[in-house]
Design a protein that fits this description.
five-stranded mixed β-sheet, 20% strand, D-Maltodextrin-Binding Protein, domain 2, 13 strands, 45% helix
């Protein structure tokens, strides 16, 4: 008997023992952006996907539009994106379901000015760069409403992120409304500073908490995917929650991993973590912020139909993994 067992063991070594459980292939789409994919990167680098039985293929897309085209076309099962592309697809309508938050990125949405500017009034008669139909325009709209700023006193110039950075550095525009990590680059190269963010006012040189705009990155899938592979969705969320814990508990290590992934200096990545709140939590604040943005996008005809965010959330997987992160009313 001993000889038979030994022979079997030797045979297993010779041919290579099979894994204890087969890995399930899962494709996740996102952008190369720390606002949208920090936990995804950490879960890959720390082996949390593998530990959860997932063979995760992370695909980067150059824009939210490209990501959503792939999602609607079925080439990716799960995605992580900001509110605007998510609302755009849901409004088509398309059966997209939000299954978890990734981060509250409200503080990463920022209005930049030159260092000599300390008030909104100083922008009267100036040029402001923003990207129409995105969080950029939505933040500017919120600043106008919340601070009583006269939008007709400035010239708005529609341009993309890279063009905004270049124009700000050259002085072709006096202010830009952007999001991290673009704002870090614009501040560094354009001798700029943040005047107002979604969560803070820096007017008169003082940092004062003031939430005027909310934006969130979320994890989403189609209704069919959630019905067909509920266990995979739970495993994915479990791996991302471990990654979220790692960011909170081992910040220096997380900064090093993320800075390398996103080609940022560690200090820049550390600053981005400061303005974001990484969490998988599904709560009423997120719903209110999504609904507010949906109303704005619908009012400017950026989306074809109204979206009620609560109807676009499937919290069952997150509730099964970590029930206390679901506080929706």
């Amino acid at each position: 008997m001993k000889r038979a067992i030994t022979a079997l063991l030797l045979a297993a070594v010779a041919i290579g023992a099979a894994p204890l459980a087969a890995q399930t292939k899962v494709t996740i789409g996102t952008a190369r952006d720390p606002n949208l994919g920090a936990q995804i990167v950490i879960a890959r680098e720390k082996g949390y996907f593998r530990d959860a039985g997932l063979d995760a293929d992370i695909k980067y897309f150059p824009s939210g539009g490209d990501l959503m085209s792939a999602f609607v076309g079925g080439s990716i099962a799960y995605g992580s994106a900001g509110a605007t592309p998510v609302l755009t697809v849901r409004s088509r309508p398309f059966p997209l379901e939000i299954v978890a938050q990734i981060s509250d990125i409200s503080g990463a949405q920022q209005m930049l000015v030159k260092k000599s500017v300390n008030s909104l009034d100083a922008l009267h008669g100036k040029k402001i760069g923003l990207l129409r139909g995105t969080a950029s325009e939505a933040l500017f709209n919120s600043v106008v409403k919340s601070y009583g700023f006269d939008a007709s006193s400035v010239q708005l110039v529609n341009m993309g992120p890279a063009e905004m950075i270049t124009a700000f550095i050259r002085g072709d525009v006096d202010s830009v409304v952007l999001w991290e990590p673009h704002t870090s680059k614009a501040r560094k190269l354009g001798d700029g500073k943040t005047l107002i963010s979604g969560t803070y006012s820096y007017l008169d040189g003082k940092a004062t908490p003031r939430r005027v705009y909310g934006d969130h990155a979320v994890l989403f899938a189609s209704q069919d995917t959630l019905k067909q592979q509920p266990a995979v969705t739970r495993a994915l969320i479990g791996a991302l929650q471990k990654a979220n814990d790692f960011i909170e508990q081992h910040r220096a290590d997380a900064v090093a991993i993320l800075a390398k992934e996103y080609t940022l200096e560690p200090a820049e990545m550390d600053a981005i973590i400061d303005v974001n709140r990484y969490t998988l939590r599904l709560d009423d604040q997120m719903v209110r912020d999504f609904d507010s943005l949906a109303e704005f996008l619908y009012s400017i005809k950026r989306i074809p139909n109204p979206v009620h965010t609560r109807d676009a959330i499937d919290a069952s997987a997150l509730k099964a993994v970590k029930a206390d992160l679901v506080t929706l009313q």
